[in-house]
Amino acid sequence: MRFRVEPSPAGGWYVKLAGHDAPVSRHDTEEEARARAEAYERGATVEGERVTLRDGSRIVVRPVVPEDRPRFVASWERFGEESRMRRFMGVKKRLTPEELTFFTELDHEDHEAIGALDGETGDGVGVARYIRDPDRRDVAEAAVSVIDAWQGRGLGGVLLERLARRAREQGIRRFSAELMADNRAMLRLFERLGAMKVHRDDGELEIDVELPLEDADCLGSALRAAAVGDVAPR
Length: 234
Prior knowledge:
Helices cover about 30% and strands about 30% of the residues. Residues about 215-234 have low confidence and may be disordered.
């Protein structure tokens, strides 16, 4: 990855990924921006759990880190319009620096994200995320997003499996989620995760699912079998 540093219209300096207009981060001084660009160029590690999907594709799965910001910028442009609509339930052209901070700077307890990298290129191809409900500490909102070219390979199931495992380690017992009613593939993933309640409201689904207690290998087999089609919920 290559980066450029340029002034921000609102003051300060942007770091931008070469070939992309959306800023990766904003800094008060040019020196800070150039230092951060150098850090991005060194890149976040691509080490993690190596997984082979059912079509033979190889990925690396690991928790998201702040240095993944450029991967989020690049991956966002690899979502089709329909996937973006499903992810945010509305039109969104690009991620802001503030959203990139939110998506990548995590405490890994109340807010966790498990990312998948292309095993050959290191590009980001999918992420599963939970955010704990502050009023119900055993409940977290969960979401999974996979770029269009990697949908239908079983990646969504792999990510959701690892996210559920991590959530249980943190004392979370249930996932809630919101998705569009026609997102049948994601609904199937959650159905196979555990006992589920579904509330329908004007084309949207609100679901609540119990996280399983059974052996993780059994969970993984069920989720991988279910991971087909579009997986881009809110």
